[in-house]
Amino acid sequence: MQPTDDSMMQPRIEVLLSKVDSKFTLVSLGATRAREINQYYNNLGEGLGKMIPPQVTSVARKPLSIAFEEIAADKIEVGEPAPVVDVEIEDGEGETELVVVEGEAADEGDGEA
Question: How many domains are contained in the chain?
Answer without folding.
Answer: 1
